[in-house]
Amino acid sequence: MPLPLSSRNVWIVVLLSRISWTIGSMSCPKECVCQYLAVNCTGKLLEEFPTAIPLDTRQLVLAQNKLSYLPSIELHFLSDLIYLDCSSNTLGKDLDFTFVSMIKLIYLDLSFNNLTQVTFGTFSQLSSLVVLKLSDNPSLMEIEKDSFANNSWLRHLDVSRCSLIFIDTSTVRDLPNLRNLGLGENPWFCNCSFMELFCCHSCVSSADPVNITCQSPVFMHGLKMLEEEQEEFYYKCYIYFSNQDYLFLGLVGFGIFSAGTVLAWLMGVCAVIYEFLTARGKDDKEEEETEN
Fold first, then answer.
1. Which range among 43-47, 139-143, 193-197 shows the weakest confidence by mean pLDDT?
2. Phi, psi (deg, nearest 5) at residue 216
């Protein structure tokens, strides 16, 4: 007995989906090792992004290669990726809008590369991101304000061992789920705004507080962000005056004193002139009355 038309259509759809999944699963880059929904290309010295990656891949490991560029078009077709490891490569070009279609990505490792900056467009499409590793990028000198504004699910962020001098508090202020923030071994400029990063995130545990050390200004040099040293940080940040500060205050005080002295002298001169003119006016009036 032939199947009803509707049932037949369902079976055709299922069969086509099965064939499509099988074809997609059979393809695998020759340099890589493929397992169920996972592709591992670790240590193959690849200089270009591998081709023929199955479209249903969930985990892609490209660590320890020589990749200097990630093609956004190829990544666009891997929209089901939830895990991407690109550590230990030579990525250094602009990554803005590289991960446009990877809205399911949860784990991204870009450590040990040559990244230079992070902007709003770098990770703005990764709304599901939970773990982001950017450590050991010696050329990374800037993370722009609000770079992680769309990554509200982020729990682990590591920017250790880069060349960061400053990170705006607002950059991580709106990350309600952030629990681990790695900041160690950067040449931090420790002004009062930098201290607010710790005040506003008392619930955030730093991955390596021992290695968070101030590089500048001079009076903060060498100070670590350990809990027992934060009181000293408060003192130096909000109370401490350097020689330049004392010189500035001295100049301001001298300027105020000089201005006050000149003003008092002018007022005295004006008072003397006024008294002189008043007295002269009285004398002239008396002379006129005498003549009359």
1. 193-197
2. -150, 165
Q: Which amino acid is at 2?
A: P
Q: In this structure, are strands 33-35 and 38-40 parallel, antiparallel, or unpaired?
A: antiparallel
Within 13 Å and on the Cβ side, how many CA atoms surround 33?
A: 5
pTM, two decimals, is 0.71
CA 273, CA 285: separation in Å to the nearest integer? Answer: 18
Residue type, 1: M
Q: What is the pLDDT of residue 227?
A: 53
Q: Cα separations (Å) of 208 from 8, 59, 180, 213? A: 61, 28, 10, 10
Q: How far is CA 1 from CA 4, 6, 13, 15, 205, in A?
A: 9, 14, 20, 20, 67
Digit-coded pLDDT (tens) for 203-247:
455 656 667 888 887 777 777 765 555 566 666 665 655 566 667
Integer angstrom CA distances of residue 199 from 15, 93, 181 = 58, 34, 14
| Structural contact between residues 124 and 148, judged by C-beta atoms closer than 8 angstroms | no
